[in-house]
Amino acid sequence: MVRLTSSLAVLILVFGISSWASGEVVFQDDFDGYTTDSSLPNPPWETIVNTVTVEVDDTIYVGSSGKSVHIVDSGPDVHAAFIRTFPRTSWYQLDYDMRTAGRDVEGIGVTLMGDAGDDYLVSFAMGVHGSLADHIGIHGGRDGWIEPPDPLVPYLPYETDTWYHVERRLNLATDEGWFRVWKHGEKGNPLYDATYLVGSEYANTYIDRITFGSPLTVGADGHIDNLKLTAIPEPSTFTLLCIGAVGLLAYACRKQRRQSRLPG
Question: Hey, is 178 helix, strand or coil?
Answer without folding.
Answer: strand
